Amino acid sequence: MTPDPGTPSTTPRSPMPSPEAFVPHVRDVGPVALAVIRDTVGMEELPAFFDRAYRQVLETIERQGLHRLGAPVGVYYGQPGETVDFAAGFPVSGRVLPDGDVAPGELPGGRVAEMIHRGSYDTLAASYQKLEDWMREQGHTAAPIVWETYLTMPTPEGNPDDMLTQLSWLLVGPGTPSGDDDERHQRR
């Protein structure tokens, strides 16, 4: 993955998260406007997809006079297998106009189970398993939407063990698109 311009390799984009952020918890989140490229991608193709998507999205939001409002995200729609329905992009200050492969997207509002993973992307599966086990123990039901927020970005000189990735798993139930009759939360 290409590092974000101007961002040191393993320096968090915000102050170091509290120790509680590294253990599973639930919180309410509002919807977040995104500029993304979404495609069905082979799992082995994800690194190249990230590079292409982030570069094109950054170019598009700059051309359209929008501002990036946070760290890059990767959104999984459904369960990954050999391929995954995936979007990569950034939170933005307004609605991006479709431009080539770049399109508007949105992180849904609702309740999410969350935790921060510390370490390389190769070890993300263990954190996902920890989060999934915790959700089951707590009686939560996962929706088919998960996103990663890349609080640090990899670079050749960076230490992969210092990478921070926030995992956010949308929950089914009141206040979420998958389980709430409230029309403001309904999926399109």
TrEMBL record:
User: Ranges for the AraC effector-binding domain?
Assistant: 22-172
Return the annotated region ranges for Disordered. Answer: 1-22
Pfam families in alphabetical order: GyrI-like
Skewed-composition ranges (Low complexity): 1-13
Name this protein carries in UniProt: AraC effector-binding domain-containing protein
What species is given as this protein's source?
A: bioreactor metagenome
The organism that produces this protein has a lineage beginning with: unclassified sequences, metagenomes, ecological metagenomes
